[in-house]
Amino acid sequence: MEDLFLLVIKESTGTKHNALRQTAQIAYDKLYRQHGMHRDPSHELRSVCFTALQMALDTKRPKFITMGLNGLHRIIKDERFYIGLEPEDDSVWLPAQLLRATNGILPTTSSEETVVNVLRIFLAMACSPACTLNGRLLIEILSRCGECWELGSRAIKAASLAAASQCLRTFCAFLIEEAEEVKKTAPAGLMTQTQASAVYNEVIPVMQWLCSRLVEPNVNNSPNKKIDNNCSLYLTECILTLTSALPRNVHANPHFTSFLWQKFCPTLAAALGSPGRVNLDKKFTYKDALHIIENEARGFFTGPGLDGPQARCVYLTGIQLLRIAGAHGSLRPMLEALFHRMLLLPAPQNRTEPLKCVREIFKSPERLIDLAVILYVDKNTGQSCSDEMALFRLLIDAMEECAYGVNSGVAVEASLQASVECMVALLESLQILCTGELTESMISDQIVNVVNTRHEHLKDADYTGPLTYQSMSRLPAPYRDAIVELRQNVFEPSSGSESEADNHHENDAASAGSGDTEGPEDDDPSTSSDELSRLENRWPYSHLEAPVIPIRADIDNDRQHARDFARALRKELVPKLLCLRSCIEVDEAMQEFASAICQENSIFSDFDYNLTAINADGIYLAIYSALLLTLQLEKAGYYDSPQKEILIPMSEQQFVTSVQNTGVLVYLSSPWLCELYQSVIVSNALEAMSKEEMEGTTSRCALVDMLSDAGGLGSTQMLSEWQRLQTANVKYTDEQHNKRRDAAKKLCRRLLTCCWESMVIVLSSGLGDLQSTSASNKLVALSKRTLRVKSKTNKANGEALYALCLDGLHSAATLSNNLNLQHLAGKILNLLASNVCQTTGPRISASQALSMDVVLTGGLNLGSYSPDCWNSIFAVCRHVSQLEHEIFSMQNPSVSTSPGTSRRDMETGEKLNSTGQNDKINLSAIPIDDDETCVDVYSFLQAPLQSPNTNITSILKVYSGTNETVLLSQSDTSKVLCALSHQAENLFSDAAERLSLPSLCQFLKNLCRASREQLYKNTVARKGSRIWWPSKGWKKITSLPMSLLLHRIGDVTLKVFRSSRPLLHVLKIWAITGPHLMDAACHRDRVISKRAIEYIHDIITSLLVEQSELPYFHFNEALLKPFENLLSMDSCDVDVQDQIIACLYEIVEAHRTEIRSGWRPLFGTLRNARSRMLNMSNIIDIFRVFLDSDNTLVFANAGLDCILCLLSYLEISGGGGSNNNTCGEEDNNFRPSEFLHETLRFLERCSSILSFMFNMPKCPNFHSTYKIKGISYTHIIDANIPNSMENFTYFGNDYLQTKNEQHMISYRSLHIDKDAIVKIDEMDKPSGVLKVWFLLLDGLTNSLIVCPYSHQAPILQTIFKLFKNLITNPGIDFGFYCINHLLIPMIQDWLRYINKTGASWQLIEKNFKHCCCMTTDLVVEFIEKSVPETKKHGTIKTRVTQIVHPADNVMYSKLKFVTEHVGADSNPQQYDSSSSSEDSAGNVIESPTKISGSATLALKQMLLVLIECSAQAQEAIARVGVSCLKHVILSTGMLFNESQWMIACSAIHRACTVTIAPLRQLSFAFHEKSNSFYGDCANVKVAARRDSTLEELTRIYALAQQVFLADNQREPASTKPLNNHLDKHLTDDRSYSFLLYPLNNGFNSNLDNFVIRIPFKNLVVGLLANQMLLQLVAKLLLSRMKCVPQAVSTCIFDNYTTAAATTHDYDLDFRSKEILLRCVKQYLTSSLEFDSRPGLKFLMQKVSNIEYAANLYKQMTSSWMIYYIALVDSYLNDIVVYNLGPEDLNFILESCSRLNTTTVKKKENFVRYLFCLQDAWNLVCELYLSNSAMHDIENGKLRNEEKRNLPHKLNNTKSICISINGSDNSSTSSHSETTTTDSASPSKCLPLEDENVTMTTLISEFQPKCRNNPFDTNRPQKSESETISPEIEQQRATSILKDSNYKRAALAQLVVASMELLTSLPAEADENLKLLMTPTIREAFRLVQLQGNELKVNQF
Is 1065 helix (H, G, I), strand (E, B) or coil? Predict the structure, then answer.
């Protein structure tokens, strides 16, 4: 320094520089003296030097200026100038002295270099440690620098700014040091932070000065705008520097903070001036703002505003203010106002710069923490915690608006880019806070404590405030006011749009603002179509037949059982489970417990048939559900404090549903589950568990782990075992570090929950367009977006933005995992997947590789919490497979063709391992089912890729750092794809191994849904739903075997089944994947369906190997169910069927003992697969395995299904394949018949197993018996015969009806009382074995009807074999039950089935007859066996008959004679007495019978069926019907008592009535004695049909001869050749029917409606059957004659009574005989009716093609003889019984009339029979006389004589008729008189004879030469005048004449027979009989003798 002064002295020559030289000399001297103790104060020393140097500068001579500057520098460097402390007076401090010294150096006066050098000196001074500054000096320096800045050049500007900034920094550093010093020196505890920070008061004037300078030009309205702007940049830079240099703790100074919000921030906001274009979207209307701005004239927005650099300084100042004041709640509004002005007020396109500054905040974790934490809450305003997020929300809103701005077409690309950069910076900072290195400086201990105190748990930190910056209520009033003013003044014209915007905004605040981010309403990105969701609802095992458990009234039973179960659970199971250490043991114990419960239940059921329907699966699920609920309640403290209101996690109904709707087969009723729920609520099932065990504090409890896994209750969604392994690996870290990390995570979570939606929107906008017209609703906008990569104007920029957005998404995905915000990640993954999946090979970009890596590494964790992530994850997995396939299939050819340098990078990728690569390349040609070979293609990667993630990151590191999307080289692409593929594999295997049950279920549900969309995507694609799969056509996908998600489903399911997971997991998983695999098995693509079936097979096998099914469980059933369902579907083709059958065969072969409940669906499958018999041997083997396994429990479960399956094979043809439809004779080759025999043998085996199980002491309950519970419908016979004519039409002739009713009886004894039938339940055991047995027999019998003809004989054989065995076991009752309800109804069904289908009888006849006969035999055998031996030989007869009250049953009144009066028989051996009781209630009182009720039912039903057979038009069937009827009655008759004889005789009567009905109906159409053959009462036509074969017709005509001709007419006829007429018939091949039309009564309305059709065939076969039945009647009536010698009846009536010589003695009672007599009488009447109609007989002659008129003389003679002999015997017998003499008889004859039989008490029946006998005898004689008279004597005379002979008789008859008609309907005459109409008829009918002959109501003529078709029913009716052709007249006359001769002979025969009988009787009897002879009889006897009979007859 001294040298310098010497130099100045030396240079300053001349007078000009005297002063300079002197001052320099003084200064030099002064310096020279400074040594030792004699030093001057530093400021004095400086003052002297500065004076000299200032003078040197003032000379303006460059030489001196240089020296002056040099000197100034030396002063600053020289320590001598700083010794000691500065004095109080700051004017002598270095800065003040320096300012004075350089006063004259300004840009206007000095050179640029000089000014710059001076400013450098200021800079150096500020940097020197000795510099002492205060506020005043600092302002002066700033002012000086500012002056230089304003006036100077660029260099000066830079220098002045640097000097000012350094001074500011030095000043702040000085203050900081001072504050620290104050704190240190002050006594401990006396100095607070606020007092220490008082030193910062000095900053306030500086800031004040800067602010006033900044806004000054605006106030003064200075015209010099340029200067203003220049200065403002300098000022803003100074402000920035100052705020940057201030420490954080300055906020403790209340003066400073007041200044900040009162002055500083408003100044900055005002400095920003009026925004160029206000953002109208954010309008704030706070008109009540207070005007408290200091200067009213100055508004915030009146100035022109700052341009770029100045504004940027202000923005950065804002950041520093955030650092300083962010922690103060009271300063937040001021900050918000500033940031509002910076960000929200400008329009989005003007926000780029402020957003770049915001990025600076977001880039720094420290600033983020400042933003997020208010340490000092403002006590006055009572801020809530959400206020600390308000500023953050404001920043986020600004970015979000930019994102929306993109959409509205405004050019906001730059601000969008800035927004995205901000978001990405924010996410990266959050990642640092989450996982990076944390330091004290980054997050102080104070903040750690505050945050951890405020938010105890991570979840508590969630932001729950408004989701947008909520208007300006928070902002300072002046600012608010200014905004209002600005909007009103500047933008008035656009008020219309404002108000709209306002509405929008308010809506926005209401809808989006009020929501809580904890659960934003995420719209499911995979909105599948309605159809799909409908299908999904249908899936879970809706096709497993849920049990149709009968709804019982006694649900108390169920409830009691549930209570017992809950007790057992609490007391027995839980304590046992708590002792177990492993989950596997716990699960096994639960299964055993469930099985034991069911075992107990089945045992109890022996005593109590109302067993609770349960199965072990249901119980097992119930255990889980109950314990899980208990654990939840226990954790919530529910049991500890019952009075406290604790929310129960699920309602009763939810609990019931949780068990019943799991997709598993559950037999538990709702009441049972409700009761269990109540038990759980009331008592703690886990009471045995300690608190430690529950919380896992001391040791882990396997039970709690299992329950947590099942309910997803753990801390994560992974399995407990996996979590434990993870925690074992974590190293211990210090506690403080953990606290700091926790606090950081909580803050991150808070910030993230606050901005999540907006972040998604911003990043979405960066990736593509947001499809929304207004920002009114973010969620709507989000849901409508479509994502695409935009081709931006600036491509590089666009790509960079795209890459940046993906980076942001990566960070977001990672963060959501780290912060447990997985539930929000759906949209992030959605965005990632949708962008990644649009790429195609051969090279991919680094950012997309990273995207895939992020999705695949974090996917499992994200998806486990947020199921809507799965779709995106699966999409990426598929995309990886697809890219891999594309790249490797492209590489192979390219390598071989061009191995040049351009491909070198790709080759290196290949050289990784060429063999593995080739394997993969060939994959495209490998069909899907060879998938096993390629599962481990990348095994070569596994060694280096222990953690594939690092590998990918290291590859991608090379590409990072650039700003555009870089494509990876091909070799890198290959490597990355290999690693990604490996990760995808790991993702699926980890899911199977690690996920807890609820997450795994969600995972698989989504996987199945995605797979379904993939398989059937053409059908489910729908507008609006995004399908993730690349739409490149199906062909491409089929060639991508691994990209089919079906493989993933199969593999994951297999992994789960093979893992050590509990059975519960297996059950629930199968309920999800099973239906999907089943669905896939129906796919039209055979490759896919084949693969799906293979998966099902593998899964079944793996479970059968891994899991042994305990008794009463049914999960194997659910396992095999898909096969059954598949085969029952129409869409299942033949190949699939064969594959399934093969699978089943393999399963049975390999795991026969493990199948257990799986047998049921297995048989169901076989049953459905029966259409193809290609696998016969396999199927036979399957049945053999099942029936040979000796497990009764398995048979009880599946036996019924096995039986049903076997039965189904009986009905199908034995033909080879389904294409072979003709199952006729030629088909029945060796194999099918062998198969049939095998099937029948298996059924017999089933029967023997059932027999064995019936006798088991504790037989297991048969499964499915609840389905057939009670077999509620018991099949019995239908007693009505279809198409029978027994209900006659009388054509208005009442007398015919009256006459007919005399033959009728009530069929009440044949009535089957359904209520009295024993139900199978009553004889069955609780196990239901008989029901199954019954179904076996039922199936067998039913199959007989529909099976192919060739199967019938073997099936019949089996049926009767099994039925015979029933006698021994299970016994005769069940045998009868089956006969009654299966066998006999089957015959009727078969018969009707054949008639209905019109099938030919030819083939079936033989088997049907065989069946009828065998059944009859069986019934006979059973009835015999059912009667106890002692009774068979007993001779005691019952005495009581049925007692009937006549008024109660109209039908029965026809037998009223039984009950009219009591008749006491004196001879008990002979007759049962019949008595009546007036007070009986009309009920039938049965006598104690020998035969049981079921045997009687069998008898009734058998007889009814046989009656129906005998009424058939088929001769063979009718014959077999009658024969069997005979057999039943004759074989078992000796066991019958009265009621059974009633049944038998009623049946005979009905058979007789039905068989003769056609003939009688035809007769009713003609009047007696009428010669007309066209009908009198109805029009009779003959119709012809071609519906029979020649053989059948020939047989019918032969039968017609047999029934319509007497024996003496037939012999000659049979030898004659057939005449022409017959020939014509037979060549015509026509069968005939008689059609009866009502007479035309004037209205010609459709007569066809009333037609009665009587086929000729029915008529003939009916008569034949009737003849056979007559033999039976004769046998029964004439078998026990007591008075008429047997020999007499035999010789008179030899053709009928020969059979009577039998050993059996039938004990018929009176009523049975009466019925049989009516049968005979009906027959006799019918014969006489027919024979009295010549026209009908002639018609029949023509139709039958016989020689003579058709007649029934043979039938008439035989029936009369039977009737006569039976009555004679009865009459003579009664005389003996009652001990009557001739006088008594005469008295009776005289005193009694036919109307009044009651005069003889107690002998009415005797009297009635006496008159019947007399009438019958009289009738024949009368007919004989009239016939003889007609031939021999002139008509008139004899006729008159006859009339005179019978006056009494006729009167009598008329009176009878009247009395019958007039009497009550419920009773008819007790007479059975046949003579009435016959004796009356001559007088009535003969006068009409001629008229009848000529009557011409004929419709067609009967002519042998068929000129006109006589049977053409469509010809018009002829007029009445039309006559019959002479030829026909001639034929008819001849026929009638011939016939009368035969008739007379027949009648004579009867008269002779009666005479013979008289002679054969003993004398006494002979006399008694003669008493009955009337004059007519005597006359007939005389006439017979006259006509040449040589009998010796006594004269009368």
Answer: helix
> What is the distance between the alpha carbons of residues 333 and 475, in angstroms, rounded to a whole number?
5
Sole residue written with tokens 């009633």? 1542
**Residue 1969 is encoded by which pair of tokens?**
């009989």
Please give the full DSSP string across 77-136, using - where no structure is assigned. H-GGGG-SPPPS-GGGSHHHHHHHHTTT--TTTS-HHHHHHHHHHHHHHHHSTT----HH
Tally of CB atoms within 10 A around 1103: 25
Interatomic CA distance for residues 344 and 337, integer angstroms: 10
Single out the residue of 1415, 1974, 1453, 1465 nearest to residue 1709, CA to CA.
1465
Distances (CA, A) of 1883 to 601, 994, 1843, 1886: 85, 110, 8, 6
Q: Band of the pLDDT at 1830, cuts 50, 70, 90?
A: low
Q: What are all long-range contacts of 795-802, with beta carbons under 8 Å and residues at least 24 apart?
A: 796/963, 796/964, 797/413, 797/417, 799/964, 799/965, 800/963, 800/964, 800/965, 801/416, 801/417, 801/420, 801/766, 802/766, 802/767, 802/847, 802/965
Name the more confident of 1595 and 1838: 1595
DSSP 8-class letter at 523:
P
CA 1132/CA 1130 separation, integer angstroms? 5
- Whole-number Å distance between alpha carbons of 147 and 1279: 130
3 state SS for 1692-1727:
HCHHHHHHHCCCCCCCCCHHHHHHHHHHHHHHHHHH
Q: What DSSP letter does each residue of 1421-1481 carry, written as one string?
A: HHHHHHS-HHHHH------------GGG-TGGGGGGGGGSS-B--S-TTT---B---TT--
Q: In what order do the strands lie in the sheet with 1578-1585?
A: 1578-1585, 1631-1638, 1652-1655
**Cα 289 to the center of its chain, rounded Å:** 64
Read out DSSP for 1431-1443?
HHH----------
The string over 106-132, giving b where at least 16 C-beta atoms fall within 10 Å of a residue's C-beta and e elsewhere, is: bbeebeeebbbbbbbbbbbbbeeeebe
| Nearest CA among 1668, 1666, 1407 for reference residue 1526 | 1668
pLDDT in tens, 499-517: 333 333 333 333 333 333 3
Coil vs helix vs strand at 1737: helix
CA–CA gap between residue 164 and residue 242 (Å, rounded): 10
Cα(1944)–Cα(1830) distance, integer angstroms: 10
Label residues 735-748 b or e (16+ Cβ within 10 Å = b): eeeeebbbbbbbbb
Distance CA 1598, CA 1438 (A): 48
649 contact partners, CB below 8 Å, separation of at least 6: 629, 632, 633, 636
**What is the rounded CA–CA span in Å between residue 867 and residue 536?**
16
Task: Indicate if the alpha-carbon torsion angle 310, 316, 321, 324 is positive or negative.
Answer: negative
Tokens for 696?
């896992």
Residue 269 in 3-state DSSP?
A: helix
Question: In this predicted structure, what is the pLDDT of residue 190?
Answer: 60
More confident residue, 177 or 274: 177
How many whole angstroms separate alpha carbon 1693 and alpha carbon 1758? 7
3-class secondary structure for 1887-1921? HHHHHHHHCCCCCCCCCCCCCCCCCCCCCCCCCCC
Whole-angstrom distance, CA of residue 1339 vs CA of residue 342: 90
Instruction: Output the 3-class SS for 1297-1334.
Output: HHHHHCCCCCCHHHCCCHHHCCCHHHHCCCCCHHHHHH
Return the higher-pLDDT residue of 1803 and 1562: 1562
The tokens describing 1923, both together, are: 């006559």
Could you tell me whether strands 1652-1655 and 1578-1585 are parallel, antiparallel, or unpaired per DSSP bridges? Answer: unpaired
Contact 1575, 1636 (CB under 8 A): yes
CA dist., res. 1575 & res. 1579, Å (int)? 5
Determine which of 733-737, 1260-1264, 1627-1631 has the lowest per-residue pLDDT on average: 733-737
Please tell me the predicted confidence (pLDDT) of residue 1457: 31
